[in-house]
Design brief:
Distance between the termini: 66 Å
Bound molecules: zinc ion
Strand content: 5-15%
Structural class: alpha/beta
Number of helices: 24
Radius of gyration: 29 Å
Helix content: 40-55%
Largest sheet: 7 strands, parallel
Number of strands: 17
Strand order of the largest sheet: 11-12-13-14-15-16-17
């Protein structure tokens, strides 16, 4: 067995069976973690085994290494075989029904041959369970209720960055199948929604069923929820649901369009199609205009069916511009695309030249100034703004004027050793009365000021509006940081008159941040569009508290695209000199 995913799947099964057997909690856990390590391993397994280095992989001890070697060379695991023989068939699936343990599953199998939840439901409905010793009519009802409750569990929303990570792993796994031609993430995730209900993947292959079969062996799967020839839904060990839609290559573009949504956008596209006497079907775009011709011949040969080669061709056939996924929300994009007025220069990650809003160990960041700077440089940035917290944010190690001087000296030192331009910045608190932290004579010495609210969120709307308006009217240029203070799924945006504030910003020394921290993604797309109407400028920032968080950039860009933001409206697409000039406080 040379496929690392097949080996990971076997380890995952060992972990689950050990868990169900009971009494070996730590061993069970080690196998599950090991499954993940193997699935994510970047080095060739064969090489690791040959050089006796398996145990060098994080999470792989000697016991696991032995099973992995055995799986690799013989395709079998003695431990897995032994566990499978010990445990009743279908135990993994049955154990998801509340109240069923290995012992009861064993009884069910011995008495009635039950090895799946479906069989269990039928037997309970038919009143057969009460024939088994220890089971009664009451137990039957309890089991039916438990099955119903697992069927209707309320959906858990997944944060975008978790969904993206899991989704990318699924795609990487699908790519190990030779039958796969292409695979893409779809659904809410492709539209860069803040949270998604499930991960949706569309795959194209000559034999879609072989991709479904391959998908069902994904090692992180704990349960198959649904399956058919071209579709499957599974639950992953992290609790996420993944839907795979597998189609023939010529059906891929329409399948991707439909799986991406939104429903409202697709509804509008159907209307546009109907006006043109067209219909968007799974097989292709069908023309209903020419009912002539022999109805017995297939649509394709009668020229009535078009199979677009990609999504752009679908929009073209409908007589409109291509609409990028982030815009597909029925917010006027269909009408604008019909008039060919969608922006062609929507902001892209490659457009960004400077990493804005980075914290270091001077305040609550995890990495040093030099580490943050080098990481931004390694990502190809031309400049980086160091913006640690100001003194009022004492809980986040706000930088006092004394330590600020030390930071500036360190910036000079590090600057000698790197090519990327380091800009002196601050994330200055907007204090309760709307003034900025630090006296003016210090504020004026920064290269860039991000002004944010970190306290007193619960002011009434009038007070909060006054506070922010006062801040935006300060004579120095400032970027309004994580504007409305929302924390996704944890804290709603605070109360204020956003339109009034935007009016003030439009005539003040100010710009607005699109914060790429996946828990913030603030300002939100609907407000970005309001701000754009007033010709306000933006920066897309990372709010990074570690070098890894510099990767937040893509979430900021995704959110900005949802707000229809164009390259020319984003200040950190400018080169170093022009950016410095644009954001210079005074
Ligand atoms: Zn902040
Ligand atoms: Zn920050």
């Amino acid at each position: 067995m040379k496929d690392k995913y097949a080996i990971a799947a076997a380890l995952q099964e060992i972990g689950t069976l050990l868990e169900l057997k009971g009494g070996e909690y730590f061993k069970a856990r080690a196998y599950k973690l090991g499954a993940r390590s193997i699935a994510e391993a970047t080095e060739d397994l064969g090489k690791l085994i040959k050089e006796n280095r398996l145990t060098f992989v994080k999470g792989i001890g000697h016991g696991l290494a032995k099973q992995i070697e055995e799986l690799y060379t013989t395709g079998q695991s003695s431990l897995l075989n032994q566990l499978r023989a010990e445990m009743p068939p279908g135990i993994v699936e049955l154990s998801n029904v509340r109240g069923l343990n290995a012992k009861k599953a064993e009884q069910l199998h011995e008495a009635l041959g039950i090895s799946s939840v479906d069989e269990l439901r039928e037997a309970a409905k038919a009143g057969k369970l009460r024939e088994i010793k220890g089971f009664t009519a009451k137990t039957e009802n309890r089991i039916l209720a438990a099955i119903a409750s697992t069927d209707n569990q309320p959906e858990r929303r997944i944060h975008i960055h978790h969904a993206l990570r899991a989704g990318e792993r699924v795609i990487e796994y699908l790519q190990t199948s030779r039958a796969l031609i292409q695979a893409e993430l779809a659904g809410d995730l492709r539209r860069w929604q803040e949270t998604v209900s499930q991960i949706v993947v569309v795959a194209g292959a000559r034999h879609p069923k072989s991709i479904v079969d391959h998908f069902l062996r994904f090692p992180m799967t704990v349960r198959t929820e649904e399956q058919s020839r071209n579709r499957a839904v599974v639950s992953l060990s992290e609790g996420f649901k993944v839907t795979l839609i597998a189609v023939k290559p010529e059906e891929f573009p329409i399948a991707l369009l439909k799986a991406t949504g939104s429903d409202a956008h697709l509804g509008k596209l159907d209307q546009v199609a109907a006006k043109k006497k067209l219909k968007i079907t799974e097989k292709g775009i069908v023309s209903e205009a020419r009912p002539s011709g022999r109805a017995t011949r297939p649509l394709l040969t009668r020229g009535l069916l078009t199979q677009p080669k990609d999504e752009a061709a679908i929009y073209k056939k409908l007589g409109m511009q291509y609409v990028p996924p982030e815009l597909r929300e029925d917010q006027g994009e269909v009408e604008v695309a019909q008039r060919a007025k969608l922006p062609e220069d929507l902001i892209k990650t490659e457009d960004i030249r400077g990493m804005v809003h980075c914290h270091t160990t001077y305040s609550d960041g995890k990495h040093s100034l030099a580490e943050m700077v080098r990481a931004a440089e390694a990502m190809g940035m031309q400049y980086v703004t160091i913006t640690d917290h100001s003194p009022t944010a004492f809980y986040a190690g706000g930088v006092t004027p004394d330590r600020l001087k030390r930071q500036w000296a360190e910036i000079d030192e590090v600057q000698e050793k790197v090519k990327i331009k380091i800009l002196r910045g601050t994330e200055s608190d907007i204090v309760a009365d709307g003034r900025l932290d630090y006296p003016d004579k210090i504020l004026e010495q920064f290269d860039v000021i991000v002004a944010s609210i970190h306290s007193r969120y619960k002011m009434d709307s009038a007070k909060m509006t006054r506070r922010i308006v006062t801040a935006m009217r300060q004579p120095v240029f400032k970027i309004w940081g994580h504007a409305l203070g929302r924390l996704i799924q944890r804290r709603p945006p605070f109360d204020c008159d956003v339109e009034q504030i935007l009016d003030v910003i439009a005539e003040s020394q100010a710009a607005i941040e699109v914060n790429g921290d996946p828990y913030r993604l603030d300002m939100a797309p609907e407000w970005i569009r309001e701000a754009r109407k007033r010709k306000i400028k933006f920066v897309i920032s990372v709010d990074a508290h570690s070098t890894g968080a510099l990767n937040n950039l893509k979430y900021g860009v995704g959110t900005a695209r949802r707000g229809w933001l164009r390259k020319a409206e984003v200040l950190n697409t400018l080169g170093t000199k022009a950016f410095q000039k644009a954001v210079k406080p005074a």
